Amino acid sequence: MSKSISARERIMDISLNLARVGNWTADSYDDKKNLIARLISQTDGYIKEVSQKNLNKDLTDVFEKFKKEFNNLKSEKVKDSNKHWWAERALTWANILQHRAKPA
Which stretches in the chain have pLDDT values below 70? Predict the structure, then answer.
C-alpha cells in the first residue's frame, strides 16, 4: 500500500535538500559536486510534485517565487567567487520553505 505524500511533507523534503546543498556548496563544493547535482535533480522532481497539489494562496505565491529562484540557482555555475552567495540563497529558501510549510 502506497501512502500519498502531502504537500507539506514534500516542501519539507525540498527544504532539507536545499539546506544540505547550501551547506555542501559553501563548505566542500569540489568534493560534493556529484551529490549536490543529484539532490538538485531530486528537488526538481519534488517541485513538480508539489506544483500539482492544491496549496493555500499564501504558500502558492511563495512557492512560485521559490521556483523562479531555484531555476536561477540551477542555471548559475558555482565558482569560488560566488559559491558563498549561491549557498546563502539556497539556505535562505530552505528556511523560508520550512516555515511556510507548517500551515500547508
Answer: 1-2, 103-104
DSSP string, the chain: -PPPPPHHHHHHHHHHHHHHHHHHHHHHHHHHHHHHHHHHHHHHHHHHHHHTS---HHHHHHHHHHHHHHHHHHHSPP-TTTHHHHHHHHHHHHHHHHHHHTT-
Measured distance CA(40)–CA(43) in Å, rounded:
5
Instruction: Give the whole-angstrom CA distance, residue 4 versus residue 68.
Output: 26
From 73, 71, 68, 77, select the one nearest 90 (Cα to Cα).
73
Q: Which residues, including other chains, have CB under 8 Å from residue 47's CB and lie 6 or more apart? A: 14, 67, 70
- Cell numbers describing residue 65: 517565487
Which of 61, 69, 57, 63 lies closest to 10 in space, CA to CA? 63
pTM over 0.85: yes
